[in-house]
Amino acid sequence: EPEVTQTPSHQVTQMGQEVILRCVPISNHLYFYWYRQILGQKVEFLVSFYNNEISEKSEIFDDQFSVERPDGSNFTLKIRSTKLEDSAMYFCASSQSGTVNQPQHFGDGTRLSIL
Amino acid sequence: AQSVTQLDSQVPVFEEAPVELRCNYSSSVSVYLFWYVQYPNQGLQLLLKYLSGSTLVKGINGFEAEFNKSQTSFHLRKPSVHISDTAEYFCAVSEGSSNTGKLIFGQGTTLQVKP
To answer: ∠A63-A5-B59 over CA atoms, to 5°?
Structure first.
């Protein structure tokens, strides 16, 4: 069964540095998402992406965050200048459409640790 | 604004016993409801979903959930659990008017199945 893959599984970065989290969605999917889960807290929606543009974003997704689909297969989340509070598990998801009839498939996550 | 509350952070239960994981939501519009499971070091996997129709929904691995509109609940149940059901369980909602399918998650319930 096709799956969403995320790399790296664990990223350790110094505060203030830029970090790029990578995701390869399922090949025939058109909608892409990033969520994050701070340790001990809820899984939170960050952003959804369709047709090479952001379709929705949360309040968390400020100017420090950006997303890109650079080559038609990868979907990346960039944090420009990381803060301690960015430490979390980041999940990528994809679906065939943006409707609830097509479930979102999640990757295993990238654990981001900011020092 | 939508929100999801999972009342129990941890639920310990003996193998072959029944279990219920509670989920309540709040929303001013129609919602769609989901349960996801996260096994250790893995991503989120869809267990079941309620979109419309019968309020009793059956999912994978013998789980079922019942949508109760008057009580704004979507509790997850299994009549007899196995050790392999030990995992984190997340309840989630998607707003009916959303065209991006973003999910709003509860804080999760850890199901600990003991031999």
So the answer is: 105
Closest partner CB to A56 (pick from B49, B100, B107): B100
pLDDT tens digits along A35-85:
999 988 889 999 999 989 999 999 999 999 999 998 878 999 999 999 999
Q: What is the mean pLDDT of chain B?
A: 91
CB contact under 8 A, A45 and B34: no
Q: Which two tokens stand for residue A68?
A: 């890109």
Is B7 touching A (CB cutoff 8 A)?
no
Quote the DSSP letter at residue B100. Answer: S
pLDDT band of B99, cuts 50, 70, 90: low
Question: Per-residue DSSP letters for B23-87?
Answer: -EEE-SS-EEEEEEEE-TTS-EEEEEEE-SS-SEEE-GGG-EEEEETTTTEEEEEESS--GGG-E
Chain B (55-84) residues lying within 8 Å, Cβ to Cβ, of chain A:
none
Residues of A near B (Cβ–Cβ under 8 Å) read 4, 6, 31, 33, 35, 41-45, 48, 50, 55-56, 91, 93, 95, 97-109
Q: Which helix (H) or strand (E) holds A13?
A: strand A10-13
Q: Quick check: A100 and B51 CB within 8 A? A: yes
Cβ-proximal residues to A43 (8 Å cutoff; 6+ apart), any chain? A35, A36, A37, A91, B44, B90, B92, B103, B105, B108
